[in-house]
Write a structure and sequence with these properties.
The protein is mainly α. The protein has one domain. The protein has helices at residues 7-20, 33-43, 47-65, 70-92, 96-121, 130-168. The radius of gyration is 17 Å and the shape is elongated. The chain starts with 6 loop residues before the first helix and ends in a 6-residue tail after the last helix. The mean pLDDT is 90.
């Protein structure tokens, strides 16, 4: 039976915890959650843990930051699960281009899914027409910019720091 709590596990978890704290910065959508999903699923051996961590961080931090409507929250969770699936792909052969591509893909998926859910829920009062859906996406563009930047920055920090740590501490390499 494989050990779960290895030095690699603790190094990955420590990076995630350090980066998760920045969710409390007052910059809308400039968050590390999608990057954590990408990173965790790329490196954690136990994938159930990798998928649960970003969802748990999102849920716990929402207790302090406020809860969006339930329908949109499920869309956010689904988006982070998809980011985790992209992280599995990145983990097969970690490279700068895969990390950047994965960060961009997860940001686009997050934008499309969560804003569709916001429109569909009626939470923001957009008309339930094609024009209302387009308006919902238009109004979300400034948040999308922050989502992309946040996911790129935090993905770079997480993947870069772990790759540097593996060079410095050989015990972290398989």
């Amino acid at each position: 039976m494989k050990k779960i709590f290895t030095p690699t596990f603790f190094a990955i978890a420590a990076l995630i915890i350090i980066v998760a704290v920045v969710r409390f910065l007052p910059i809308p959508n400039f968050t590390p959650i999608a990057a954590i999903a990408l990173f965790g699923c790329a490196y954690f051996k136990r994938k159930s843990i990798a998928f649960l961590i970003p969802l748990a961080i999102y849920a716990i931090t929402n207790l302090f930051l406020g809860l969006p409507d339930l329908f949109t929250t499920f869309a956010v969770y689904f988006s982070f699960i998809l980011a985790g699936v992209i992280g599995l792909w990145i983990g097969k052969k970690v490279s700068v281009s895969r990390v950047i591509g994965g960060a961009l893909a997860s940001s686009v998926l997050f934008f499309v899914i969560t804003n569709f859910a916001t429109w569909l829920s009626g939470f923001c009062g957009y008309p339930m027409t094609m024009g209302g859906l387009i308006l919902c996406y238009e109004m979300a563009i400034p948040f999308f910019r922050n989502e992309v930047l946040g996911t790129l920055v935090y993905s770079g920090v997480l993947f870069g720091a772990f790759e540097l740590a593996k060079r410095r501490f050989p015990v972290l390499v398989k």
